[in-house]
């Protein structure tokens, strides 16, 4: 029986946990293949809960408590996976943090560096360590970015910067990997119904405790994960979620000032630039 090894970072809740559950569920339709999930995040207890759910669906699961903001732990995640399973077929870079703050309200930009360390470098370090194994399997890299990485959003100078950087990194890597048969899929969720914005940084570098975005009509985490899984199955180049997101890519070229106004309108009135 063949096996397929998938690593998911940020797998303890939100999009990452739902991706794990959906991939485990899909394993039922692949009786000749063992679905192996390696779940990585900082919260061991939450990882264990997700692992139990995935094992109940028939997947083989290993958890690896990991802070992707630490390069040695990123390397350890890959080394531990290969030591146990001998291969890596899919790497899903999902771990990330959010932030909302008007630049003029920030007094210490140190947390900007922390955010970049998690959102960009965490993905880069894990991917770099996994690359030889993904080349060997002609595997797939998935990078979960954001619509804020396609269109700048006011109050998101830090977050948008990390996601724009992430996009540049993986778009360049996609071309580098063409001769090796390794796919790179970029996912661009919009507002998804998770707690990421509640835990994200505010201007003081503390957990915000609330969302600055208009959450009406937020995409469910189940729908978001389903779109990503479907894109993975076809090695889709870009998964741009929501009609607004798809339009924004074109409007940015054709009517950039309109895009600016739409981005501003996405914020709650009390957190708009004043």
Could you explain how this protein is built, in words?
By secondary structure, this protein is α/β, with parallel strands linked by helices. The protein has one domain: NAD(P)-binding Rossmann-like Domain (Rossmann fold). It contains nine helices and seven strands; from the N terminus they run E-H-E-H-E-H-E-H-E-H-E-H-H-E-H-H. The N and C termini lie far apart (61 Å). The model has no long low-confidence stretch (mean pLDDT 89).
Tell me briefly what this model is.
With 274 residues, the protein is of the alpha/beta class.
Oligomer: single chain
Strand order of the largest sheet: 3-2-1-4-5-6-7
The structural class is alpha/beta
Main sheet: strands, sense, barrel: 7 strands, parallel
CATH class: Alpha Beta
Count of individual helical segments: 9
**Number of E-type strands:** 7
Which features characterize this protein?
single chain; seven-stranded parallel sheet; 9 helices; 7 strands; alpha/beta; globular; about 270 residues; Rossmann fold
Topology:
Blueprint: E1 2-9, H1 14-26, E2 33-41, H2 44-56, E3 60-65, H3 71-85, E4 90-93, H4 110-137, E5 140-144, H5 157-177, E6 183-188, H6 196-199, H7 221-233, E7 238-240, H8 243-254, H9 256-265
Parallel strand pairs: 1-2, 1-4, 2-3, 4-5, 5-6, 6-7
Helix pairs in contact: 1-2, 1-7, 3-4, 4-5, 8-9
């Amino acid at each position: 029986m063949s096996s397929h090894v998938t690593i998911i970072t940020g797998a303890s809740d939100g999009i990452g946990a739902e991706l794990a559950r959906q991939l485990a569920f899909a394993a039922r339709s692949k009786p000749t293949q063992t679905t192996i999930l390696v779940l990585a995040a900082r919260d061991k207890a939450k990882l264990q809960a997700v692992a139990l759910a995935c094992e109940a669906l028939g997947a083989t699961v290993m958890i690896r408590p990991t802070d992707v903001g630490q390069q040695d732990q990123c390397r350890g995640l890959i080394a531990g996976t290969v030591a146990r399973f001998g291969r890596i077929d899919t790497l899903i870079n999902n771990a990330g943090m959010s932030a909302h703050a008007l630049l003029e309200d920030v007094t210490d930009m140190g947390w900007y560096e922390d955010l970049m360390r998690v959102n960009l470098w965490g993905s880069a370090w894990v991917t770099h360590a996994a690359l030889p194994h993904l080349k060997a399997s002609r595997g797939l890299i998935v990078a979960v970015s954001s619509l804020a990485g396609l269109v700048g959003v006011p109050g998101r100078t830090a977050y948008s910067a990390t996601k724009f950087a992430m996009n540049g990194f993986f778009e360049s890597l996609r071309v580098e990997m063409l001769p090796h048969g390794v796919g790179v899929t970029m996912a661009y969720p919009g507002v998804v119904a998770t707690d990421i914005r509640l835990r994200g940084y505010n201007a003081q570098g503390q957990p915000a405790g609330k969302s600055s975005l208009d959450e009406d009509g937020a995409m469910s985490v189940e729908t978001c994960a389903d779109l990503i899984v479907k894109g993975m199955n076809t090695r889709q180049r870009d998964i741009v979620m929501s009609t607004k997101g798809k339009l924004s890519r074109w409007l940015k070229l054709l009517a950039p000032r309109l895009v600016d106004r739409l981005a501003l309108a996405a914020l709650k009135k009390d957190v708009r630039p004043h």
